[in-house]
Design goal:
The complex is a heterodimer. Chain A is built from 13 helices and 2 strands. Classes of the chains: A mainly alpha, B mainly alpha. The interface between A and B is large, with 107 and 113 residues. Chain A: This is Sugar ABC transporter permease.
């Protein structure tokens, strides 16, 4: 029956595998090679061993970028998940039970649709949008209002202490809706009987949330944390478009992707930029390993 | 555990399991009711506030696209004196939003078509046929999920350059397909695995070839999965910024929308054409609102499908 299986299998795999090898696997492999050279994009690469990594060690821009990833990695998931959980709970369980089914507060469907919308927009477009919103003079949405009220304008992207947090705020603005929908799906699969039993025992919504919803949602929370962690290691589009001088002021918002891009395509340091890519690779691996460690908690079967 | 559970947070002194007379139970219920009311009104306020935070920036951009510069600077809340469509015209032709938009449509339609075709072919074979190297190829694809694109950005640039595909849509489309394959294969392989074998076997007995079986039997059966991944890929490729920035840097007439909008925002600073920028921004946002309004349910499930899996 399965005659001629191999020609068919090969025929179906040849194109995807070739494309994937040429554009994904080969560049990844080459990145490790190039990281050991001082190649500048032309001529033959010269082998210099670990020199790039030694330089990386003393590169303040690199360490600033790593530090920013650390901040984003903590702040973005914490803030986003907290807000999204709160809203998802209100939208799914907050309305009490009607006819044996848990329902959300009034207008739940509407809120879910509206909250999710920023997820559909490209990050680069959102970055331009917030450039306008954050503008330091009256033409900015926020500072226009503040000036009208007679308050001092806030220099969102100019103040180095504020710039990174302004960027994190935009990321939260975009992500919350997605996680509301994600958590809603998770909450919908929690059996109603558990809520009912808890309510008969006199549990309030606060107790319901902390004692029932949260533990039963653990798996979904883990997924959310990994997703937001991956997002925290990227951030190129938002930093490149929204921040002053692509990662400024004075490196206050720079991220690794930005430094890789700058070194490779502005300074022409292909070898050095690849070394940064490799460093990033190990950071990502470390994050993934840590995540697996930390989140190792018995999930509850129901 | 009695009614104390409700008050446990406020009164930690009361131990669970301690028996209270019925009067206290009634009191607990009253308190619970008022707590419910307070919480739900607070919750409602929070929901409304967040909805405003999401909607207002977009509404504001839309209004500002009809204003002139002095109106933009005077107050963020006043309505434009008239509908200045010339802002839109300037953005569409002079700032070439029209051109960028068309480029995005071309690149994303080719990219998603290629991704879906090649991705489902690979996923199908990997999910339903036993052969040497099956697992190796599968894990090769799936491992691509873990690493960010820009890790290999520098070598990728030179790979595309060596193939003579730099500054071409073909190059960008091929790269989009290659980088969309890991998720597409991962998701669709899981999906093809769930499809019943009986239909496929019946087809084989009827003398259906492997290829025909795939295109005429399995593909239609996998439609829900294909739609989810398709939406995921459309939105992912439409939003791409870094890859076109690197791969199309010297071909301004080939730029995609994200690149174009970011560039217009830089130029708007020099030319002080804020209304033009707002119009360009509106043109980038508006179609997404329309598409989202129509396919809202499919988009939500498509984008979250990967996470729920």
């Amino acid at each position: 029956m399965r005659q001629g299986k191999y020609p068919f299998v090969i025929g179906f795999l040849i194109l995807p595998v070739t494309l994937y090898s040429v554009f994904v696997i080969a560049p990844y492999a080459q990145a490790f090679q190039l990281a050991m050279t001082n190649w500048r994009g032309i001529g033959t690469p010269e082998w210099i061993g670990f020199e790039n990594f030694q330089r990386l060690f003393n590169d303040t821009a690199f360490w600033k970028a790593v530090q920013h990833h650390g901040i984003i990695l903590l702040a973005l998931p914490l803030i986003t998940i907290a807000i999204a959980l709160f809203f998802a709970f209100l939208l799914n369980v907050g309305g009490g039970s009607k006819g044996g089914k848990r329902v959300g507060v009034r207008g739940s469907a509407f809120y879910r649709v509206v909250f999710f919308f920023p997820q559909v927009l490209a990050v680069a477009v959102i970055a331009v949008l917030f450039q306008m919103i954050y503008r330091p003079d009256e033409s900015g949405l926020i500072n226009g209002v503040l000036t009208k009220l007679g308050l001092e304008p806030i220099f969102f992207m100019i103040n180095p202490n504020l710039a990174l947090w302004s960027i994190i705020a935009v990321l939260v603005w975009q992500s919350v809706g997605f996680y509301v929908v994600l958590f809603s799906a998770g909450m919908a699969s929690i059996p109603t009987e558990i809520y009912e039993a808890a309510e008969i025992d006199g549990a309030t919504r606060v107790t319901l949330f902390f004692r029932v919803t949260l533990p039963l949602l653990w798996d979904t929370l883990q997924v959310a944390w990994v997703y937001l962690g991956i997002a925290a290691f990227d951030c190129f589009a938002i930093v490149a478009v929204l921040s002053i001088d692509s990662g400024g002021p004075d490196g206050a918002t720079t991220v690794l992707a930005m430094e890789i891009y700058r070194n490779a395509f502005t300074y022409g340091r292909a070898g050095y930029a690849s070394a940064m890519g490799v460093a990033l690779f190990f950071l990502t691996i470390t994050f993934a390993a840590l995540m697996l460690r930390v989140s190792k908690r018995e999930s509850i079967e129901y | 555990m009695g009614p104390q559970m409700s008050t446990q947070t406020e009164r930690p002194v009361t131990r669970p399991g301690e028996h209270k007379p019925t009067a206290a139970a009634g009191k607990g219920r009253d308190r619970k009711r008022s707590e419910v009311r307070l919480l739900s009104s607070l919750g409602h306020v929070a929901l409304v506030v967040w909805a405003v935070i999401v909607v207002v920036p977009i509404l504001w951009t839309f209004l500002a696209s009809f204003k002139n510069t002095s109106e933009i600077f005077s107050s963020p809340w006043t309505l434009p004196a008239e509908l200045r469509w010339e802002n839109w015209g300037r953005a569409w032709t002079q700032a070439r939003v029209g051109k960028f938009f068309l480029n995005s449509v071309i690149v994303v339609s080719c990219g998603v078509f290629g991704t879906m075709l090649l991705g489902s072919m690979a996923a199908y074979v990997l999910a339903r046929y036993k052969f040497v190297g099956n697992r190796l190829i599968y894990y090769l694809f799936v491992s691509g999920l873990a690493f960010p694109v820009f890790l290999a950005l520098v070598p990728l640039f030179f790979v595309v350059d060596n193939l003579g595909l730099l500054n071409t849509h073909t190059g960008l489309v091929l790269v989009y397909i290659a980088y969309s394959l890991p998720f597409t294969v991962f998701f669709l392989a899981a999906f093809f695995k769930t499809l019943p074998t009986s239909v496929a076997e019946a087809g084989m007995i009827d003398g259906c070839s492997h290829t025909r079986l795939f295109f005429q039997v399995m593909m239609p059966m996998a439609k829900p999965g294909l739609i989810s991944v398709g939406i995921f890929n459309i939105i992912g490729q439409w939003s791409q910024y870094q890859l076109p920035l690197v791969l199309l840097s010297n071909a301004e007439d080939k730029w995609v929308l994200t690149q174009g909008i970011a560039d217009i925002s830089v130029n708007a600073g020099y030319e002080a054409d804020w209304s033009g920028l707002f119009a360009a921004l509106t043109m980038a946002i508006l179609p997404m609102i329309l598409v989202y309004a129509i396919f809202q349910r499919q988009i939500q499930s498509g984008l979250t499908a990967g996470a729920v899996k």
